[in-house]
Design brief:
mainly alpha, 4 domains, 3-stranded antiparallel β-sheet, two-stranded antiparallel ribbon, 5 strands, about 10% strand, globular
Length: about 240
């Protein structure tokens, strides 16, 4: 039986289930809503409510992917261009899954920008290496030995998200409960002016209201509004 979730969690699943890797979706729900969900329960709930993992592509969209696959360095760039062209919210994993059905030998391996078979092991790469995983670029920052069946937390001792590394080098450690976002939505744009550190609760409000845009100034204005809203609420509690 599918588990009953709070209304805001139900809305979040409906809006993000189709274009977010399931493990990442579950982790976001746990962090943002404090809801003790499991991967199995989320899948069960989605199935019961008729929510599909991979949305259908139109013939025009499929042909666009075939025609433009060689124009971009990595799958993030291709995905961003696809979403702007068709007004969709696909992520790069969905795009790569579709490409593997349309063009089995296409140039994007599951690791992102590298061809299949080249540098697929993240444990064998030297410090400073970069790889693409779960929608983000990662940098190897250490070379601590890992067990055969290592966990995600153990992997993150050696690898960190590239945009967080860049931000911390410029501004210092990121506080607990905060994350670094791309103001223009382009995860290939690591310009410091495009990176902004904000509380996770702000991200939740932004996503709920559909305020993330590809315009840096507009997105920043919306974030500032959210920060002011929470600052005023906090001031009311203290008064």
């Amino acid at each position: 039986m599918a588990k009953a979730y709070p209304e805001e969690v139900q809305r979040y699943i409906r809006e993000n289930y189709a274009d977010t890797p399931h493990k990442e979706l579950v982790q976001r729900i746990r962090e943002q809503f404090g809801c003790a969900v499991s991967l199995q329960s989320v899948r069960c709930w989605a199935s019961k409510h008729g929510i599909n993992r991979f949305p259908d592509y139109t013939g025009e969209q499929e042909q666009w992917l075939v025609d433009h696959v060689d124009e971009y360095v990595n799958s993030i760039g291709l995905t961003d261009a696809f979403n702007k062209r068709f007004g969709t919210r696909q992520n790069d994993m969905n795009i790569k899954a579709k490409l593997h059905r349309l063009i089995p030998d296409h140039k994007y391996g599951w690791s992102g920008g590298k061809p299949q078979g080249e540098g697929s092991s993240v444990t064998a790469k030297p410090i400073g290496s970069e790889t693409f995983k779960s929608g983000y670029w990662w940098i190897k920052v250490a070379d601590n030995p890992l067990p055969k069946n290592y966990t995600g937390d153990q992997r993150r001792e050696n690898w960190q998200q590239k945009h967080r590394v860049i931000y911390e080098k410029a501004y210092g450690p990121i506080p607990d409960g905060y994350l670094v976002v791309f103001l223009d939505g382009n995860r290939n744009n690591f310009d410091l002016d495009n990176l902004y550190c904000c509380p996770r609760q702000v991200q939740t409000v932004m996503m709920r209201n559909g305020w993330w845009t590809d315009n840096r100034e507009h997105t920043l204005a919306a974030i500032k509004w959210c920060e002011l809203f929470y600052a005023l609420k906090e001031a009311e509690k203290k008064s």
